[in-house]
Amino acid sequence: MRRAAKRDGNEPAIIAALERVGCRVWRISSTAGPDLLVLTRKGSWLPVEIKNPAGLNRLTPAQRAADAPWPVVRSANEARAAVKSASARPKRLTEPL
Q1: Model pLDDT for residues 26-41, shown as the tens digit of each residue
Q2: Cα-flanking dihedrals φ and ψ of residue 85, to 5°?
Q3: How far apart are CA 41 and CA 74, in angstroms?
Q4: Of 41, 36, 5, whose CA–CA distance to 23 is shortest?
Q5: CA 40 to CA 85: how far, in whole Å?
């Protein structure tokens, strides 16, 4: 039986900060992908990887192999900055799923 992945201790504070600025946030459980999928107020999708503030944990081998094309954040301020940056260059779905 597979055990649930350990979540980063700073994840709840980061999610709360993103929700306070109007984002919708989904937790993702994947060994090769990011921790969160964020929908910004402007409609941009942003995958986000969370690491602990001390910088002790690193990207997994699978994340490194994927070249981690998403921001890695360690604090609520870094997460808000990543969302602000993503909102400045929107990447929207052009057709409904």
Answers
A1: 999 777 788 999 999 8
A2: -65, -45
A3: 22
A4: 41
A5: 11
